[in-house]
TrEMBL record:
CDD domains given in the database record: nicotinamidase
Pathway note: Cofactor biosynthesis; nicotinate biosynthesis; nicotinate from nicotinamide: step 1/1
Species this chain originates from: Umbelopsis ramanniana AG
Domain Isochorismatase-like: 15-221
The protein's name in its UniProt record: nicotinamidase
Amino acid sequence: MITTLGVHSNMLGKTALIVVDVQNDFMETGSLPVPSASEILPVVNQLINGIKDRGGLVVATKDWHPPNHISFASNTPNGKVFETKTMEYEGETFAQQLWPDHCVQNSKGAEFTDGLETTKFDITVLKGSNQNVDSYSGFADNKYFEITELAKHLFTRQIETVIVVGLAADYCVKETALDARKFGFRTILVKEGTRGVVPDNFDSCMDDLRSKGVQVTSIQDQEFTTEFLF
């Protein structure tokens, strides 16, 4: 690790920050609110500015669902929000959790939330556009029928380390981090930069990520800040 400030500050060319789904519908007043979601914004913005200013890549993902998306309870006969239904696509059956309508393409709810440093995003990756299968991860849908362009962007820029923040910890952030590991990236999750749909499950979610090779850290961890922010 290079810790000399004058040298280190320009050495993040192989690092990418992935900001997952910080969109209006996941804010406290959205259609699928994540408790205390807005509390992550100062940390996320600090990371956006720090990584970008030191030569790193900043990528954002967006949930981008068509109105007839399979995950919406409103599109399932007798479907109830948060229950699980068995679905079928391309000859494969799978369990699908039903959600309120959220992040519908071109809607206000799908926009990045106010206060987020969007002007420093290098790339925005859209996910969840296939009406027939849900997509939590920024890398692929839940059954790997389709892969997004995220991995291609990272590989072509020779990224080695990804830092993951955003919403929500127990779904899209978790799956994005796990896929980052599967694609071979050193993966770091900053815990102050995310919140969960079910806050009581946050600690167990972090433990699960650690067990699968994701480095869970704090924005206040001196080793982390020395490597990426100072």
